[in-house]
Amino acid sequence: MDERPEGPSRRAWLGIDVGTQSVRALVVGERGAVLGAGSAALTSRRGPDGRHEQDPESWWDALAVATREALGQAGSPALAAMACCATSGTVLLVEQDGDDPARPLTPGLMYDDGRAVAQARLVREQTVPAWQAAGLLPQRSWALPKAMWLLRSGTRPGARLAHQSDFITSRLIGTPSATDTSHALKTGVDPVRAQWPVDALAALGLAVERLPDVVRPGTLLGRVCPTAEERTGIPAGVPVVAGMTDGCAAQLAAGVLDPGRWSFVVGTTTVLKGVTETVLRDPTGVLYSHRSPDGYWWPGGASSTGAGLLTREFDSSAFARLERLAAEREPADCVTYPLTEVGERFPFHHPEASRVTLGTPRDDADWFAAILQGVAFAQRLSLDHVRGLGAEVSDEVTVAGGATRSAYWTQLQADILGRAVVVPRTAEGAVGMAVLAASATAGDLRSAAARMVGIARVHQPRQQNTRRFAEPYARLVTELAKRGWIGDELLATALAGTAS
């Protein structure tokens, strides 16, 4: 827990992050100190037919455990407001039943549930002006096909669609909750007008009366009801503010709010998020943009590269030793694009892409070094992709996630990217939701972030090392182009960067 003194004020905000593996709750003070933290585990059901489900009641049970633990640690804070983030694209059907505003009628179909194949094909064939205006190209992973699959013929008349976050907020406020444009983005919402494109959805057989109302993130949804207080320990009357997806919440917690700023979350996979003044249009469809509460656009994408390959190939007890040896292999004898599984989503889309390795590692340390370097090469290619689309990329990037526990790997990223790497103090989604709640009740988004978000450390690039990695990076992107995985324009942008 962050022990920085908060001064005499006990005002605080509650942020909740409903993830895939757990629910996390944090009580955050005026200046960003974490006053109390709680969590509870979640479990999933997977099947050979592509299903990935969770029991919605387990979300509510876990939230109650997490919030009571966090509030207990915090003592008696004066909660000014709260907000909740959840996984992007997780949906279910609910109905109002007596005192329950969101009685689940189905399991929660998780973001990567793959059963709505026919519906995804129909969605990809649609031309929707609202999506085009926002630079959105539908993908199979969108929530919209899942919504269509759930609401196919024979569904109960009173059933309505809810996102994972909507289910939670409905229970909190005691009445059916509106959804926010961030969680609803992949369900086909118009993020510019904050409304459903009624005609387009009707053409897909999706009646708008089955969908929740839409508001922008940061909008007051209601107040915690007495029933929710009894279950969760959150005092009745606390304002509940519309949240954003977990990726956007992490971006808020990292303080990445200005145009030209970009952030990576490097864990099992790697997520890029950034800020632009106008919508960034990507003809390849691998990048999509959320609309921020202050009117900017937040483009981003998720790569299947990351630390997943490290944990698969090496015992974590050997990491410290291998890192010391990796420092002597800059660059490694081989270069790799470190996919753990088949398929890549960003910075290029190729469902059959697999790990590429050029050359042969001389030993385990060399292979370890190649993976660390390969993740940073994928990050560099991601920045080259957005630069090629016309986006501004500043001289510093923010990096969060499990990879930042390694000072060596973080410095390596700075060297390969040729940019300063800023490591935020706490880049948790629950912190981001506390910042959003504070922006709705105590100033705007920028001033709330300025008070509550801090920097842990900064790694400056070593230019000699940056030049050293130019050749293996050029070799890797040239190979990706030969395989047809990236186009000539991205190749040209990437190679031009190696010549500077």
UniProtKB/TrEMBL annotation:
<keyword id="KW-0859">Xylose metabolism</keyword>
<dbReference type="InterPro" id="IPR018485">
    <property type="entry name" value="FGGY_C"/>
</dbReference>
<keyword id="KW-0418">Kinase</keyword>
<dbReference type="InterPro" id="IPR050406">
    <property type="entry name" value="FGGY_Carb_Kinase"/>
</dbReference>
<dbReference type="InterPro" id="IPR043129">
    <property type="entry name" value="ATPase_NBD"/>
</dbReference>
<keyword id="KW-0808">Transferase</keyword>
<dbReference type="Pfam" id="PF02782">
    <property type="entry name" value="FGGY_C"/>
</dbReference>
<dbReference type="InterPro" id="IPR000577">
    <property type="entry name" value="Carb_kinase_FGGY"/>
</dbReference>
<protein>
    <submittedName>
        <fullName>Pentulose/hexulose kinase</fullName>
    </submittedName>
</protein>
<comment type="similarity">
    <text>Belongs to the FGGY kinase family.</text>
</comment>
<keyword id="KW-0119">Carbohydrate metabolism</keyword>
<feature type="domain" description="Carbohydrate kinase FGGY C-terminal">
    <location>
        <begin position="264"/>
        <end position="440"/>
    </location>
</feature>
<feature type="domain" description="Carbohydrate kinase FGGY N-terminal">
    <location>
        <begin position="13"/>
        <end position="252"/>
    </location>
</feature>
<dbReference type="GO" id="GO:0042732">
    <property type="term" value="P:D-xylose metabolic process"/>
</dbReference>
<dbReference type="GO" id="GO:0016301">
    <property type="term" value="F:kinase activity"/>
</dbReference>
<dbReference type="Pfam" id="PF00370">
    <property type="entry name" value="FGGY_N"/>
</dbReference>
<dbReference type="InterPro" id="IPR018484">
    <property type="entry name" value="FGGY_N"/>
</dbReference>
